[in-house]
Amino acid sequence: MLELAHILNGYKVDAPTADFWYLKNGKVEKFNCFVGYSKMYSDMGVDFAWASAVNKH
Fold first, then answer.
1. Burial of 43 (0-12, 13-18, 19+ CB in 10 A)
2. I need a labelling partner for 8 at 20 to 30 A (CA). Which of 23, 26, 35, 57 fits?
3. How far apart are CA 31 and CA 29, in angstroms?
4. CA-to-CA distance for 15 and 43, rounded, in angstroms?
5. Which residues pair with 5 in a beta bridge?
């Protein structure tokens, strides 16, 4: 879980993460970290109107 705090107001934002470590011969060859942006934006009060973005013609 990634936890961030806003510098000015101190509000906290939690975002789930998925970390993928790729090893080869006991050494890290590649690392990927994926953040759950939907949860993070929700904590920040961002409300996406996904339906309005779809062309309904």
1. middle
2. 35
3. 7
4. 9
5. 12
Hey, which residues does 32 pair with through a beta bridge? 20
Confirm if 16 and 38 have CB atoms less than 8 A apart: no
Bridge pairing between strands 27-35 and 17-24: antiparallel
pLDDT digits (tens, 9 = 90+) for 10-28: 777 778 889 999 999 999 9
DSSP-based three-state secondary structure for 21: strand
* DSSP-assigned letter for residue 8: T
- CA torsion through residues 15, 18, 23, 29, sign: negative
40-57 pLDDT per residue, tens: 888 777 777 766 667 666
Sign of the Cα torsion 38, 44, 45, 49 reads negative
